[in-house]
Amino acid sequence: MKGSLIIFSAPSGSGKSTLIGHLLKSVPDIQFSVSATTRQPRGDETNGKEYFFMGMDEFKNGVNSGQFLEWQEVYPNQFYGTLKSNVEEMLNDGKSVLLDVDVKGGLNIKKEMGENSLSIYVDAGGIDVLEARLRGRGTDTEESIKMRIDKASEEQKLSKYFDWILPNKDLDVACDELVKGVVKYL
Question: Among 51, 142, 182, 186, which residue is least crowded by beta carbons within 10 Å?
Answer without folding.
Answer: 142
